Amino acid sequence: MFFKKTTDTRKAPPVTAERKKELAIFQKGAGIRFRSLELLNLAFCHRSYANEQSVEIANNERLEFLGDAVLGLIVSEYLVEHLPDRQEGILAKIKSFVVSEESLSTIAKRLQIDQFILIGRGEEYSGGRTKKAILADALEAIIGAYFLDSGLSDCRKFVLSFMVSEIQKVIENRHRKDYKTLLQEYVQKRFKTYPKYFLVKKTGPDHDKTFWIEVRILDKTYGPGQGKNKKEAEQDAASIAYSELVPQREQEPLS
C-alpha cells in the first residue's frame, strides 16, 4: 500500500478493540473504508493527546498538511470542470469559502468527527472538541490519510460527497460569509484604510469565556460583536459593520 512508503504508522496511537469499534462507526457514517486503521487513528490524534502519552507517538499534523493540499486540488478540479463560465477570481473566492475553517469545521461536526478525536486532558477541559480549528484540521488530516490509504479516486469521491453541496451554497449565496475579509476589502477600496479591532471585555469562567470586540473604521466604532473566542467575536463585529456600511445592492452573490 502506498502509505507505507510515505507515512510511518508505527508511532500511531494503538488501535484497541474498543477503538476499532469506534473507528468502524465513524467509517460507516462517513461512507468510507480504510485499509489501515492505524492511519485513520493517526488522523484523529491531536498534538495535545500525543504530548500526554508516556511513550512517543505521532500526531496528525503531517496528514493535515497533506490533506489541505489534496482538498485544494479536488475542489479546484471540480470548480474548473463544472463552472466553465466563471472567471478565475470568482473560482478563487468560491474555493476560499468552501475550504475555510468555518466550512470545514461545520462539515466535521456533520461527520461527527468531534466524537472520535483524540485530545489531551487540558484540551478536553477547555472545550477542544468544539474548537473550529481542531475540527477543521482533523478533517484535513482524514482527507490526507484517506488519500494515502486508498488513492486519489476514492478520496475524490469522499471529498465531493460533502463539498458539492457547500459549493452550491456559495454559488446561491447561502453560505456563512467571512465578514472580516469582506469588510477589509470594502474598507480598503472605499476609504483607503483598514478596520481595527479592539477587545472590550471578557466574561465567564476560564473554561467558558465570552469575548466582546468592537471594530473601528476611521472615527466610527461598530459592535460589539461576541463569540467564544476572539476570532468569532471579530467575525461578529465585522458582520455588524459590514451590514451597516455596505449597501444591500452591493452585497451580491457569486454569479
Q: Can you summarize this structure?
A:
By secondary structure, the chain is mainly alpha-helical. 58% of the residues lie in helices and 9% in strands.
Overview of the structural elements:
This protein is mainly alpha-helical. The chain is 58% helix and 9% strand. It has 2 domains: 169 residues, Ribonuclease iii, N-terminal Endonuclease Domain, Chain A (Orthogonal Bundle), CATH 1.10.1520.10; 69 residues, Double Stranded RNA Binding Domain, CATH 3.30.160. It is built from 12 helices and 3 strands; from the N terminus they run αααααααααααβββα. The protein has a 3-stranded antiparallel sheet with strand order 1-2-3. Strand 2 and strand 3 form a beta hairpin. Helix 7 packs across helix 9. It is flat, with a radius of gyration of 20 Å. The N terminus is likely disordered.
Tag the structure with descriptive keywords:
three-stranded antiparallel β-sheet, 2 domains, Double Stranded RNA Binding Domain, 3 strands, Ribonuclease iii, N-terminal Endonuclease Domain, Chain A, 255 residues, 12 helices, mainly alpha
CATH topology of the largest domain: Ribonuclease iii, N-terminal Endonuclease Domain, Chain A
Which stretches are poorly predicted, pLDDT < 50 over at least 5 residues?
A: 1-5
Using the alpha-carbon principal axes, give the shape. Answer: flat
Series of H and E elements = HHHHHHHHHHHEEEH
